[in-house]
Amino acid sequence: TTRWKIQENGRWNNQAIQEAAELLRRGEAVSFPTETVYGLGADATREEAVAKIFAAKGRPQDNPLIAHIAGREQLYQLVERPLPYVEKLLDAFAPGPLTLVLPSNGACAENVTAGLPTIGVRIPDHPVAYELLKACGLPVAAPSANLSGKPSPTTADHVWADLNGKIAGLLDGGPTGVGLESTVVDCTEEIPIILRPGGITREQLEKVIGKVMVDPALAGENDRPKAPGMKYRHYSPEVPLWLVKGNIQAIQDLIDREKQNGKRVGLLAGTALSGLLDADHKMELGENIAEIAANLYDGLRTFKEGDIDLIICEAFPEEGLGQAVMNRLKKAASDYVLLD
Ligand code: TXA
Ligand code: MG
């Protein structure tokens, strides 16, 4: 795996962009930063190039990929008959952390869409992603650049840890900004439907286009405490994570009880709560929900098997960006513990 730094001695490394673009044109898989998380890209028009993404990640074949493009003109080369509100969404949020699911015109390879009649398209808001997409001139299929099941990568080191030796290249553009994946919106119906909460909130979307629905599969999903031992195949840290809601004393009592059971307990929480609790290791996620989102995946990767036996993680209010944060945490958690 070739690893390029995008800033060398304070200078933009255009050579790296050109080399990475050339690898993409040759049908290789290359990781690059976006404003959300690092992506693992390949030429979306070539089946055998896209297959390298699935192989490197160990990703199930039935999970479709997002086609990344440099600008709006390219969108109309991939999709058919977008509904009128799609223009409004593009005006307001492109480039940005929003993926539009639209009727595919079949220009992308079949394994990008997993055989669906629709395709997810996104214009990322990151200078490295933009320059790379422009330089290669292709739609680039890209899932998050992590091993399937692990937390998404928000730094080049995360990508390196998961995929070194399995991909052709990695463009190191530093830490990503938003830190959570894009909002995925099904735009094939009169009223759009959020399939995955993300960097753009439902409130932001509704301000621009009016009513937006949320996939019923999201609401209710893992809302109640689950039977212990239930396994998740998403965003999973190396050690079990309990998502915990309750007053400070109740959370401290839970930590102390688990420590008495011989467990080394790691705490993942916002600055306020972190300062009030005592644990074997603490990872402070930040002062506000934007900081918490940006640091979340790094936090999930911080606690290593051998150092820590259990992660206790604060449950955050499910408003605004908190909806996306809690969506990921519920998938990462092996239990959701409601105290008091
Ligand atoms: O922020 C992001 O979206 C990042 C960066 C790299 O752009 N990408 C990303 O890709 O998160 P991935 O593959 O990890 O997640 C793509 C999500 C999946 O939940 C997938 O099921 C959904 O988008 N998706 C893609 N195409 C779809 C389609 N045609 N219909 C419904 N869902 C689709
Ligand atoms: Mg992913």
UniProtKB/TrEMBL annotation:
InterPro entries: DHBP_synth_RibB-like_a/b_dom, Sua5-like_dom, Sua5/YwlC_C, Sua5_C, T(6)A37_SUA5, TC-AMP_synthase_SUA5. The keyword Transferase applies. Residues 14-200 form the YrdC-like domain. Keywords: ATP-binding, Cytoplasm, Nucleotide-binding, Nucleotidyltransferase, Transferase, tRNA processing. Its EC number is 2.7.7.87. PROSITE patterns: YRDC. It comes from the Bacteria. It catalyses: L-threonine + hydrogencarbonate + ATP = L-threonylcarbamoyladenylate + diphosphate + H2O. It is found in: Cytoplasm. Transmembrane segments: none annotated. NCBIfam families: L-threonylcarbamoyladenylate synthase. Required for the formation of a threonylcarbamoyl group on adenosine at position 37 (t(6)A37) in tRNAs that read codons beginning with adenine. This is Threonylcarbamoyl-AMP synthase. The lineage of its organism: Bacteria, Bacillati, Bacillota, Bacilli, Bacillales.
